[in-house]
Amino acid sequence: MSEPGAFDLQALNAVNASAAFNRAMGFDVIAAGKGEVTIRMNWRDDLTQYSGHLHAGLIAALLDTACGFAAATLVGAVTASHFSMNCLRPAVGRYFVASGTTLRAGRRQVFARAELFAADERDDLTLVATGETVLVPTGEPRKADES
């Protein structure tokens, strides 16, 4: 069940647009609701590491953001208290899709997980990384322009 401060797609897009890092990296929230979210980011050569794969820092950012936004659809504003990720294969593709899912939303802790997929030239998606986050609801009200 969603809390009164829960974020819908419009509110998450406003939050995403207000985050300088997310704007700079080109994160785009394409779906959100009922404890789930989908984020897309296009491939950019300037976001790679020395071997030409997407940098692990970006992988972590996508997974963490997907977990946090998924949780926010149920409980509103959150902050991470623990995050872990597993890189399963080199992250190379035309674009990336991070899918976040809320596993359990409690009053004091929210558990979420995310998967990151890379799209090839045919738009086939391959799982490249997974992440899990424990989040804490902050109780911060949404700003007036996010309502």
TrEMBL record:
GO MF term (any one): fatty acyl-CoA hydrolase activity
Keywords: Hydrolase
Cell cycle keyword on record: no
Domain annotation Thioesterase: ranges: 52-122
NCBIfam families: unchar_dom_1 (TIGR00369)
Family from the record: Belongs to the thioesterase PaaI family.
Protein name in the entry: Uncharacterized protein (TIGR00369 family)
